[in-house]
Amino acid sequence: MKLFNLSQQHIIPAEEADPVSLAELKEHPEAAYAVALEPDESAEALRPFLAQITLVVLHFPIFRDGRAFTQARSLREYEDYKGEIRVTGHVLPDQAAFLRRCGVDTVVLPDDDDQTEWEAQLKRFTITYQQSIAS
Amino acid sequence: MKQPVGHYAYESRDREFLQERIAEFEDQVKRRLSGALSEEEFKPLRLMNGIYLQVHAYMLRVAIPYGILDSRQLRKLAHVARRYDRGYGHFTTRQNIQFNWISLEDAPAILRDLAEADMHAIQTSGNCIRNITSDEYAGAARDELMDPRVHAEILRQWSTLHPEFTFLPRKFKIAISGSPEDRVAARFHDIGLLARPSENGPLFRVFVGGGLGRTPVVGQELFDSVPEAELLATLEATLRVYNAYGRRDNLYRARIKILVQTIGIEPFREAVKAELAKMDLSHYRLTPERVAAIRARFAAPELHAVDDADAVLAQHQKEDPAFARWMQSNTHPHFDEGYSIATVSLKTPGDIPGDVTAEQMDGLADIAERFAFSELRVTHLQNIVLGHVRKDQLYALWQGLKELNLAAPNIGLAGDIVSCPGLDYCTLANARSLPLARKLGARFGDARLQEEIGALSINISGCINACGHHHAGHIGILGVDKRGSEFYQILLGGQAGDRASIGAILGPALSEDDAVAAIARMIDHYLAHRNEQESFLEMVTRLGKAPFKEVAYETV
Amino acid sequence: MKRLSHLSPNECVLLTAARLLDGRIVWRGRDGQWFDHVAQAACLTAEESEAALEEASTQAARQGVMGVYPVVARKGEPPQPVSMKEHIRAFGPTVHPEFSYVPQSEASS
Fold first, then answer.
1. Which of B12, B157, B248, B278 to mutate to test the interface with A (most CBs of A within 10 A)?
2. Do the beta carbons of residue B239 and residue B172 sit within 8 Å?
3. Of B54, B225, C98, C105, which has the maximum CB count within 10 A?
């Protein structure tokens, strides 16, 4: 697996990240710095822990399931979370700009994935019609 | 270039955006053909560019934002019909136009041709915010409180490739009106907005969770008076709740109406308010400057009423009873005494409702240029409205329409049948709807008979997805499949508008010919037993469905 | 869709799909090629159709077609799909005779 960097922020290398679940985080908050949120868990649930969290991993069970967009935007807008947001699962390069604009930094891709499409999609639109977390 | 009347004039950035979007789609088509994208992955991407795979070919659905077209755009649609289709287009109940015989290979070229006239197919399908619909009499009706189209355009732009709301649980339809009379079926939309002016600027009444389809629901009021400044924030908040909590495990339970029904309107409202409380509203504020900037890109028609228009019109009506009958059914009061709103019926008896040939499109474009400031409106009842026609020119307009075979005097009458494409074109359908529409149209085609019957809406859907809005027709017809054969359920008593209600199923489904005969008997029963001045719907409301059921099934 | 195991003696199974490039309906012939016209479709027994369906589905992407599935038809020249939906796919929309895939006399069963 490899990471595609959407935001050009400093990121945590793929092999270093060892996210815990929200339940595990609540149980043992001590040393955790990375957490994986399921699509049906709310960003708000992370509020008590965000001071120590530097990586939130969101999941796409299938690319059509857009809940992670709302989770990511909520983390940035409501929780003022500044750390890395990463997405895993079934994601298409055609979603690159949407992900970045909702505040996602990185996408987990299979090792053999061609990143050219991702690069191309990030540059595709110079015009947008809404304000967003990132342009 | 002169600004178009009635819709937003594109700026260079809007045109650049369309080119970027087309380039993206062209690339997606290439990746599909190379196998880089599977059909499962490609499908939502092509749908968001208006491309379906239908029964015979790909279908392209072109957006007509808030239903407004200018003559140049209609000519472009005629060009697409001729060059890439079979000389036809089909206007739908969502104020769009569909082409039924499209090749995927041609799709990027078609989108480029459309973009030359500032048109696109973005978000006419897919699980995203769809084309924003509005009142076909907007900016013209005498009873209107405010023209909703400037805000419709603001919503069009806001919803275009919205980063957070492009992969929703299901499709999301928004309608907006500025009239006290609800002509947009606001209560049958995911969100319906009714705008009104106040001393402190426009206010919006917001309905949520309405819709037809498998589970017909009348929308409920979410907020009574949202100020203009908070319009976008309120929609954002509503969509955020829906995107997070709408069901994704069952396609048929995924619309916002199911979420609102499941948790109840009060908890839903609290959830939207909780979002609003977390938002920095200044960030989402729709400013008067922004509204003014969009409004500045709309041209208003320069109305110059002539003094003796009424007298000239009266004379024409006196001399030509056929014209007088058309005036009676196909015109609506304009706010300017010297003008009328004219509706062009796309329901010529025996023809397919909503179908228009390329020649008719070009002819309508000519007529719009001659008589109506080059502006046309596509209605959710599959007709075309000319918003501003000088009264003394109505007769010449009508003569022009007669030459195009588009002068049927049947608006709001029995022949004004709404129908989906049905099994002849649609992969979802269980039964054909167009042959039934033609038979009913021919059966009640006589103008005098229609006049006698009076107000009556007949709506036909070929399946439970209800694109023909059968629940909202005074008489609704739903095609069903019974072991490979087509049958038709009849519904009675539905209506859109302020008193929106859902039609009740009359009884067992009938064959096509039996359904036509049953409807004819119900109408005969109405004519024989109505109270004076009582409409068909009023009689149904007064007596209930029992007497109609009795006559409908008397020979079956 | 009529169950393939309940075919009557005068019925057979056709394989159909949509062509990726233009979305047009295609019918599978004896040699595994896809044709525009239902008259060129191979009329298969239920058993034959199972193997053919499997083969056709694996070859679909390479042959530029998608969504392969079986259709029950009455035998004939051309075969007449039983359901109205498949009849319309084979012969064209019923409301536009000019768009019919075959002359109306042939299309009527």
1. B248
2. yes
3. B54
In a domain, A129, yes or no: no
CATH (domain of B92): 3.90.480.20
pLDDT above 70: percentage of residues in chain B:
100
Checking if the pLDDT of B556 tops 70, the result is no
Smallest CA–CA separation between A97 and chain B, in Å? 8
Query: CA angle at residue B485 from B479 to B487, to 5 degrees?
Result: 30
Locate the chain B residue with the closest alpha carbon to A96: B163
pLDDT in tens, A22-79: 999 999 998 899 999 999 999 999 999 999 999 999 999 999 999 999 999 999 999 9
Q: List pLDDT tens digits, range B24-39.
A: 999 999 999 999 999 9
- Say if CB B188 and CB B181 are below 8 A apart: no
Nearest C-alpha neighbor of B117 from the set B31, B224, B14, B42: B14
Cis peptide leading into C78, omega within 30 of 0? Answer: yes
Looking at the partner chain, which of B58, B104, B424 has a beta carbon nearest the beta carbon of C94?
A: B424
**B280 shares contact with chain C (CB less than 8 Å):** no
Enter the pTM of the model.
Answer: 0.95
Q: Which amino acid is at B443?
A: R
- Chain B positions touching A125 (Cβ under 8 A) are 17, 20-21, 24, 161
Q: Does a structural domain hold residue B380?
A: yes
Determine, yes or no, domain membership for B6. Answer: no
* Tokens of residue B140, six digits: 């013209």
The answer to whether B457 and B416 are in contact (CB under 8 A) is: yes
Q: Which of B371, B403, B435 is the last residue of a domain?
A: B403
The count of domains in chain B is 4
* Residue B11 predicted with pLDDT over 70: yes
Q: Is B27 on the interface with A (CB under 8 A)?
A: yes
Minimum distance, in Å, between the CA of residue B158 and any CA atom of chain A: 6
Q: pLDDT tens for residues B376-427?
A: 999 999 999 999 999 999 999 999 999 999 999 999 999 999 999 999 999 9
